[in-house]
Amino acid sequence: QVQLVESGGGLVQAGGSLRLSCVVSGIRLNSFNAMGWYRQAPGKQRELVAGISNWGSTNYADSVKGRFTISRDNAKNMLYLQMNSLKPEDTAVYYCNVGWSASNVDYWGQGTQVTVSS
Known about the structure:
mainly beta; seven-stranded mixed sheet; four-stranded antiparallel sheet; 53% strand
């Protein structure tokens, strides 16, 4: 059974930093070729924040480019999102997602709340 558990969210002032972590269990992280972090703010649709492929290529939403960094540690089965220079508009529930780009099968964590105060 594949499970994803996020951690690292919290309340931070604008300009601060947080590091989100996602531990994957039940399958090796390098079994997937598409991994990413999504977020959903109240009243808004879930959006892709950052993605990383199994060969290491990354992509970011324009709103977070230069501030957020996605990374992974296959040995620890962990996915990370380093968030710097946080803004109030970054406030959302952040979700970890893993899957295969050529498949409609993917897995989600339960989410972790990030709140940025002005």
